[in-house]
Amino acid sequence: MTVGSQVKGCYSSIKSIEASLGVLSNKTQNIDSKQALEHTEQLIKEIKNDLQKQVVLLSKQEPQYK
């Protein structure tokens, strides 16, 4: 497995986690829990954006693995 495919797999997992956190924050009634979930979702979003940049960079470096 190439580094590019590993980063893409991680990116997919992060997207799934972000979506799950969004669902949980919408369902919870506890304000403290909601804030914690929203904060965590924001952090995950930043990580997802960084990974997306890495996917693009690696795709340019490993064009045969697009």
Automatic annotation (TrEMBL):
InterPro entries: DUF1657. This is DUF1657 domain-containing protein. It comes from Oceanobacillus profundus.
